[in-house]
# Entry
Amino acid sequence: MKKTRLLSVLTTTVFLLAGTVSWPLSPAVTHAQPATDPADIPGVYQPANPHPHVKAVPRTKSSAHRNDRLLGPARPHYRMNVTYDANRHTITGTMNVTFGNNLGFTLHDLYFNVWANARDFTEAGGGTQIQSVKVNGNPTAFSLSETALHITGLNLAPNSRPEVQIAFYRQSA
# Structure
């Protein structure tokens, strides 16, 4: 029991540090449900879901759910260009993500998790602001609500390889 609890705490710590230190943004095209209710696992980080209106990616035999595995973005490639200002405690930069749409249908929306905006990381103030979003070089509509970055108005064909560019600003307390 003690080893399981320690492993849970260590895993949670690693994920929390990864969300704040190295990746202020991370993509979320699909969301798989855990076999166990996370509320039953002591020490596991459990962010609130302030976005019940966000729908899951369709899972059908003909598209996203093939051979009993849920497909997501194929071969994502990340490039980041960031500047840290130690005097102001700010990070400004861009993140470019290129991925393959292997879901078998046209994507009209994309979602990214902005983990640095989780309540645990913003209690002392600060947060990440999204300044602009471009898809394949074209400005695109988006909204940011706490940790959910929702990119809309897309028409990304199956088997395409779009590039998403996100300009962001992070202010720490």
About this structure: The two ends are 37 Å apart (CA to CA). Residues 2-172 form one domain.
